[in-house]
Design goal:
Shape: globular
CATH class of the largest domain: Mainly Alpha
Radius of gyration: 19 Å
Strand content: 5-15%
Helix content: 25-40%
Distance between the termini: 54 Å
Structural class: mainly alpha
CATH superfamily of the largest domain: Acyl-CoA dehydrogenase/oxidase, N-terminal domain
Bound molecules: flavin-adenine dinucleotide
CATH architecture of the largest domain: Orthogonal Bundle
CATH topology of the largest domain: Butyryl-Coa Dehydrogenase, subunit A, domain 1
């Protein structure tokens, strides 16, 4: 029986044990630095303890483990490439890829939760947001205090932005957003939504 904590999600018992060891037939690990290997090993360890023993039960019970959000924050899985001043890890993109690869091995949905937060929520705020928005949202998103989602896809046009119907209007002291989105990862649990809309 694998039980690593007494959180509600982990009380959903599982007999699954994860003995994964990655064979390196093409010696690709030689291309990685000591730091990369250390990062990968620590995330692999996390996935073995916190995700793979439970994921099948969570999927069967249609359960989203809310505690995973702060745990991802703790291990630096949210926006690891962002500067330290915004709560990021200041790591390179190889590190980011390795972190996502390990989480993806555990479960694709869990990886979506992490990569949507970093690449689709934090990145637009970091790149296009005001300094005030960056300071307000990025550290909380990096730590997992906040969860975000990103909405491009629509019922009538899928993820084709040129067909997008969602629009926004500048009302002076606020924006009015009108439209519908679908298939938005993290949406049911998110505190902040980055939405695409046309003028
Ligand atoms: C689990 C999950 C999570 C998601 N999370 C998000 C999210 O967080 N935010 C968000 O905005 N969206 C999200 N999406 C939506 C996702 O990004 C889109 O569904 C995806 O990009 C495909 O776009 P589409 O639905 O417009 O399909 P299309 O691009 O229209 O594709 C439909 C089918 O047509 C085929 N096709 C497309 N173009 C051509 C062509 N030119 N020639 C031949 N065949 C073609 C494709 O291969 C496919 O089989 C999510 C989807 C899933 C399944």
């Amino acid at each position: 029986m694998s039980k690593t904590s007494s959180s509600p999600s982990h009380q959903m018992a599982s007999n699954h044990q994860d003995h994964f060891e990655s064979p390196d037939y093409y010696q690709l690990d030689d291309l990685l630095s000591e730091e990369h290997l250390m990062i990968r090993a620590s995330i692999r360890d996390f996935v073995k303890k916190e995700i793979t023993p439970f994921i099948e039960v969570w999927a069967e019970k249609n359960h989203f483990p809310n505690e995973i959000v702060s745990k991802f924050g703790m291990i630096g899985a949210f926006g690891p490439t962002f500067p330290l001043q915004y709560g990021g890890g200041g790591l390179d993109y190889i590190s980011y890829g390795l972190i996502m690869q390990e989480i993806e091995r555990g479960d694709s949905g869990m990886r979506s939760t992490a990569s949507v937060q970093g690449s689709l929520v934090m990145y637009p705020i970091y790149t296009y947001g005001s300094e005030e928005q960056k300071q307000k949202f990025l550290p909380k998103l990096a730590s997992g205090e906040m969860l975000g989602c990103f909405g491009l896809t629509e019922p009538n046009h899928g993820s084709n932005p040129s067909g997008m119907e969602t629009s926004f209007e500048d009302k002076g002291d606020h924006y009015l957003l009108n439209g519908a989105k679908m298939w938005i990862s993290n949406a049911p649990h998110a505190d902040i939504a980055v939405r695409l809309g046309k003028r």
